[in-house]
Design goal:
The protein has 232 residues and is α+β, with helices and mostly antiparallel strands. It is 37% helix and 16% strand. It is built from 8 helices and 8 strands. The chain has helices at residues 8-16, 78-93, 111-127, 139-143, 175-182, 191-200, 205-210, 217-231, and strands at 24-29, 43-45, 63-69, 72-73, 99-103, 131-135, 152-156, 160-164. Strands 2-1-3-4 form a 4-stranded antiparallel beta sheet, with no helix packed on it. Helix 3 links the parallel strand 5 and strand 6. The N and C termini lie far apart (65 Å). The model is unreliable at 32-56 (pLDDT under 50).
Amino acid sequence: IGDEEPNRLDLLREVLSQAIDFDDIFLYARQATPAYHPLENGTWLFADLPVDLRLKELERPQFEMEFRKGDREVDTSAGQMVFALKVIALLATLSTESLLIIDEPESFLHPNLEIAFVRMLKTLLTAFHSYAIIATHSPIIVREVPSECVQVLRILQGRIPIAANPPFQVFGSDITKITNFVFDNPIIDLPYQQTLLAEYGDQPYSELLERSTELNMESIAFLRNARSAHNE
């Protein structure tokens, strides 16, 4: 491991560009402080910030971020701003050979941003030779790591906790399969299944096939299997 620390500003640009299409980041200071002197219009261009500006300052409430593409402001979603703040928080505290403990990073994030978060985290952990422990209820995040890095926690009767790796490879696996096993998702009596049975349960298979514009093949297969099980 080299002694030189990664350039945090370069890393910030790199990982944010995975979730937001922008050319420049502007910082708006809500009020001037003794330590910093914003330009006359209250705006700092990210590239021109003083070298001694710490990323921790960006978390303080007197700053707001704005992303620009060319001469226009990028219309960012609330989830993208949450993602940006998560990145800043990590870069503000991460140091070489750190151990991060992150609780439910998927909160307020679009599924695409969950994937971007994992990609971002891998980039930062590699740059700082660090590791992370993540508690999550997201099958999307579970899908992005190999099974040997996943521990499924369960509480047995008597309040006894156990932890074990999934019995199949979750990396790149099917979301439904991960959800059913890792998160103990019940495979019967789901609300959508009850609706399908109420609306189409008495229709023969041939008529279900004719409703392909209303029903997907998974729903048709479920109805056919349910009908077969009922007739046995």
